[in-house]
Each structure stands twice: as structure tokens, then as C-alpha cells.
Amino acid sequence: MKRMIKPSIPEHSDDPRVTIALTVNGETVSRTVSVRMLLSDFLRHELGLTGTHVGCEHGVCGCCTVHIDGKAGRSCLTLAVQANGADIRTIESVANGDGTLHPVQQAFKECHALQCGFCTPGMVMNIVNRFEEPGPLDLTDNGIRDMLSGNLCRCTGYINIIAAVRRAAELMGRA
Length: 175
What we know:
By secondary structure, the chain is α+β, with helices and mostly antiparallel strands. The chain folds into 2 domains: 77 residues, Ubiquitin-like (UB roll); 69 residues, DNA polymerase, domain 1, CATH 1.10.150.120. The chain has 5 helices and 5 strands; from the N terminus they run ββαβββαααα. A 5-stranded mixed sheet has the order 2-1-5-3-4, with helices on both faces. It is globular.
């Protein structure tokens, strides 16, 4: 008889491990991790920050977008060891401490810019990053589409997301 059940995955691998220290959402953390661990896995499995979603694991969909030293970046393409010493900001840090939503989150809510919500954290992190950069925003349809070009949504058709970006700009005084 052919064995159908596979043996359990070892709890410990032989991968080299290194200790990293980084700041995540304003808190300094230190862990010993495999040199092959992705930043997305570090955030989700080591720190329990599950708002960072993993979609394609190829850097195409944008679900895993976080801020790395103030710039939007793909956590599924970044090794945790590459983030050693970095300042990381995840979706968990975007809302205010009292629970009120960030203007981008509020705009998504007001404009019904999400359905399943899987892509939303990455989109919000991307838009927040763009709004925090100095300089004018191109709030034309094409400008917003360009801003969102690194994030894929399979549910909404983008019409309400475009409206939410414009609404967020109004709420933040960037319109």
C-alpha cells in the first residue's frame, strides 16, 4: 500500500540563522531567523502582524506592500535579513492610536472601494506612501491609475478605488 500521509515538516531546519534587529511600527524587535525567511513571513509569523497579506509571492500583486525606510516596498521580495536595521511600517500602524481611521482608510470606507479586502492593505500602504511624498499629486484618472499600477484588485474594477484616492486627497488637503 502506498503511503499517503507525509512525515511532518521538521520544526528546525539546517538553514543558517542570523539575529536581526529592526523597528516595526515604532517598536524595536530582535529575532534570530533563517537567512531565507521573507520579510512578509517575518511580519506575519514572527510578529503576528497579519495585515500584511501575501498574494502572488512574486512582487506582482502588491498585497504585501509595507514601508521600508519610508518607501513602499514588497515584503514578499525582501528577505528579513535585508531589513536588518530598517524602519518598517505595516498596515497595523496606519490608523490612529484612538482607533480612528487614517484618511486613506476613511476614503476607502466612504467610497466603497473594497470588496473582499485582500488587496486593501497593500493598496492603502502604497497610497499613504505616495501621499506622504512631497510634491503635487496627479489626481487625473490616468495619474491615479499610475499610482495604483503596482496593486492588483480582482473584485472592484477600480472605479471606487479611484474615487477613494480623490476623496483621500480631499481629506488630507492634497486635492
